TrEMBL record, chains A, B, C:
<comment type="similarity">
    <text>Belongs to the UPF0126 family.</text>
</comment>
<keyword id="KW-0472">Membrane</keyword>
<feature type="transmembrane region" description="Helical">
    <location>
        <begin position="115"/>
        <end position="136"/>
    </location>
</feature>
<dbReference type="GO" id="GO:0005886">
    <property type="term" value="C:plasma membrane"/>
</dbReference>
<feature type="transmembrane region" description="Helical">
    <location>
        <begin position="89"/>
        <end position="109"/>
    </location>
</feature>
<keyword id="KW-1133">Transmembrane helix</keyword>
<feature type="transmembrane region" description="Helical">
    <location>
        <begin position="63"/>
        <end position="82"/>
    </location>
</feature>
<dbReference type="Pfam" id="PF03458">
    <property type="entry name" value="Gly_transporter"/>
</dbReference>
<feature type="transmembrane region" description="Helical">
    <location>
        <begin position="6"/>
        <end position="24"/>
    </location>
</feature>
<dbReference type="InterPro" id="IPR005115">
    <property type="entry name" value="Gly_transporter"/>
</dbReference>
<keyword id="KW-0812">Transmembrane</keyword>
<feature type="domain" description="Glycine transporter">
    <location>
        <begin position="6"/>
        <end position="79"/>
    </location>
</feature>
<keyword id="KW-1003">Cell membrane</keyword>
<feature type="transmembrane region" description="Helical">
    <location>
        <begin position="173"/>
        <end position="194"/>
    </location>
</feature>
<feature type="transmembrane region" description="Helical">
    <location>
        <begin position="31"/>
        <end position="51"/>
    </location>
</feature>
<feature type="domain" description="Glycine transporter">
    <location>
        <begin position="91"/>
        <end position="165"/>
    </location>
</feature>
<protein>
    <submittedName>
        <fullName>Trimeric intracellular cation channel family protein</fullName>
    </submittedName>
</protein>
Length: 212, 212, 212
C-alpha cells in the first residue's frame, strides 16, 4: 500500500464518519448510514475521476469501500459516544479535508490536467463529498455556512500543491507538509471562528426574501 | 427487442410514474413532470453508465425516452385516478426496484467490472433515480426513510446476481428468478413494515439537533 | 475566440450572476458565491460533456472560469445595486438560457450524438446549471415553478437547432437567429406570465399531502 492510498483511505474514513453520523442524527437506518457515509467519503473522488476521465477508484479498487463500512459500524455501535465527541468529529473532518485537497490535486496533475483544473479538482475532491452529503440529506450545505471557513483551506492547499508541482518538487515530503499545513489552517479557523467576507444584502432594506 | 431491454423499459416506466406523480403532487407543470419522471426513470442508469465508462443508454438509444413520455401523459390525464391508487404506485415502484437492481448488476458484470463494483452499480441503478427525484424535488429521500426498507432488497438482489454470475450461471432464468424474488421481498417488506435497525441517538439525551 | 466560445462565456457569466446572487441572498460567503456561481454557470455544460464523453471544457479550458470569477466580484461589490435590478437579472438569466440551449445542442450534434439526444443535451446544458444551483442551495427548483415557463423555450430552441441541422443548414446565422428567438420567447413568457398546464391534483380532494 502506498502512502497516497493510505492517506486516501484515512480521509475516506473520517469523511464517512461524518456522513454516517448525519444519518444517525436524522434517524435514518443502517443502510442509509452506509450510503450516506460512502457518498461523503467517496463522492468527491468519484466526481474528480469522472471529470479527468478515468474509472472511479472507489468502484475499481474495492479496498476503498472498507472505510465507509467501518465508519457505519463505528457509528452504529458507538453513536451515543460519538455524539459527545462532536469536536473530535470536526477534527476528523478536517483531516479528510486536508488529505483530499492535496491527494485530489496530485491525482489530477499526475493525470495530465492543467494547473488550474488540478487546483479545482483538488477542491472538488475535498468538498464534493460533504456537499453531496448535505444535498442528499436535504440540508443547507455546511460548505456555504458563512460562519465557517471551509473551502478556503482546501483552496489554499490545492493551490500550494499545484505551485510546488509547477516548480518541479512533488515528493512525499511536500505532500505531507501541505496536508499538515491545511489541517492546521482548518483547525485554527475553527478555534478562532475565522470568516470570509460575504456579499450579504444590507438588513432593513426590504430583504424579506433572505429567508427564501 | 431483448428481454433485458424490455425489462429495462418497464422499470423505467414505473419509476417515471413515481417522478411524474411527485411533480403533480407538488403542483409542478407538465414539463417538470416530464423532467422529474425522466430523472427518476433514467437517472440511476445514467450514473451507472458514466461510472462504467460507456455512453449512457438513455441518450444513445432514444427508445429509453418513450417510457418517461408515456408516464408524464398517464399522470397528466389520470392524476386524480392515479392518486387514489397509491398502493398500486408502490407496487409499480417495487417492480422498478427489482428490475433495475438485477439488470444494473448484469450490465456492470458484462462490462467487466469487478464483483463488488457490480453489486454497488446494481444498487446505484436501482436507487439512484429515486434518490435524484427526492433530492431535486427538495425532499428527504424516501430511500433513507427508517420506517421503510428500500435499499436492502436491491442490495440482496444485486448480490445474488453477482454470486450466480461468479458461479457461472447467468442465464435469463436466473435473472427473472432473482428479479421476482426481489419484488416479493420488497412487497413483503411493505406489507409487514419490516425495518432495518438504525443508529438513532437516544431520545431525551440532549438531541435537540435531531431536527437539523 | 470563436463566436461559439464568446456566446458560451456570455451565457456562463449571466448564469453565474444568478448563482452568486442567490449565495448573497442566503448570506453565504464569497467562496460560496464563487462555487455557486460556477456551478450555475458551468454545471449544465459539464454534465453535457460527461454524457457525450469528452473532457469537460470548464476544466480543460481555464478561460471558462473567468466569467464566474467576474460574476462573484460583481455581486460582491454591487450586491445592493444588483438586488434592485431583479428584472435585469431575469433578462440576463434569459440570455444564458437562450445561449446554452442552442450552443449545447450544437456541441452535441458536432460530437455525433443522435438528434433526440442532442435536443435533450441542449436542454440539459440550458437548465442543468440552474437546477444544480437550486438543489445545492436547498431550494425548490425554479425550473419546476408552475407559474413560470422556463424549460419550454429551451426545449423549443434546441429542437429548432436540431431540425435546422438535419436539414443541412447549421451556420452561424441559424444559431444567432434561434438564440434570439428563444430569448424573445422567454422574455415574452415572463412579461405575460405564460404557463404550461400541469397535472395538479384537484383541491378539496383530500390533498393535504400537496405540501409534502
Amino acid at each position: 500500500m502506498t502512502w497516497g492510498l493510505a492517506l486516501d483511505l484515512l480521509g475516506t474514513f473520517f469523511f464517512a464518519i461524518s456522513g454516517s453520523l448525519l444519518a444517525a442524527k436524522r434517524g435514518f437506518d443502517i443502510v442509509a448510514s452506509l450510503l450516506l457515509g460512502s457518498l461523503t467519503g467517496l463522492g468527491g473522488g468519484v466526481v474528480r475521476d469522472l471529470i479527468i476521465g478515468r474509472p472511479p477508484a472507489a468502484f475499481n479498487e474495492p479496498i476503498h469501500l472498507i472505510p465507509p463500512v467501518l465508519a457505519a459500524l463505528v457509528v452504529f455501535f458507538m453513536s451515543s459516544h460519538v455524539q459527545r465527541f462532536w469536536t473530535t468529529i470536526l477534527v476528523f473532518d478536517a483531516v479528510g479535508l486536508a488529505v483530499f485537497c492535496t491527494t485530489g490535486a496530485v491525482t489530477a496533475l499526475e493525470f495530465g490536467m492543467n494547473p488550474i483544473a488540478s487546483l479545482l479538482l483538488g477542491v472538488t475532491t475535498a468538498v464534493g463529498g460533504g456537499l453531496m452529503r448535505d444535498v442528499v440529506a436535504n440540508h443547507d450545505p455546511q460548505l456555504f455556512n458563512p460562519r465557517d471557513l471551509y473551502a478556503a483551506p482546501a483552496f489554499a492547499g490545492s493551490a500550494l500543491i499545484v505551485l510546488i508541482w509547477q516548480l518541479g518538487g512533488a515528493g512525499n515530503i511536500a505532500l505531507y507538509s501541505v496536508t499538515a499545513a491545511v489541517l492546521v489552517f482548518r483547525l485554527l479557523s475553527l478555534k478562532y471562528a475565522w470568516r470570509v467576507p460575504g456579499a450579504q444584502f444590507a438588513r432593513g432594506q426590504g430583504d424579506g426574501s433572505a429567508a427564501s
